[in-house]
Design a protein that fits this description.
The chain has 131 residues and is α+β, with helices and mostly antiparallel strands. It has a 3-stranded antiparallel β-sheet. The chain starts with 9 loop residues before the first helix and ends with a strand.
Length: 131
Amino acid sequence: MATATKGKSKSAANGKEPGAREKARQAKQEAEAKARQAKIDNGDLIVVGKSEFEAASKDTQSSAQIKKILDAYKASDKPLVFADVAKKAGAKYPEDLIPCMYSLELIGLVRRFGARTANERRARQAFLWVG
């Protein structure tokens, strides 16, 4: 004589009909699959073989610093020394961020200059926003 498990019907206890927990798990999986497909459809998730590339929207420390640097260049009508601008933006190692400026130079958004004062032998990198 089979008795129903507390909280489940007799057929759910026998495995014929999924219980509430199983239904919730299936609903969650279906919702996740729909959300994943929506990301693929709008281009926020690209699947290439076994790799998945999901669009990132969270700002990192470097991206926040680059944004501040670019804002400073956009606001200026004269060339600015990169190291000075980067330090004001909070960059501990400005030289790590300068490749970004070289990239912008390659696509024509900034123009590079050598900056030196009368007593300096070496020119420092300076840029002017032209984009």
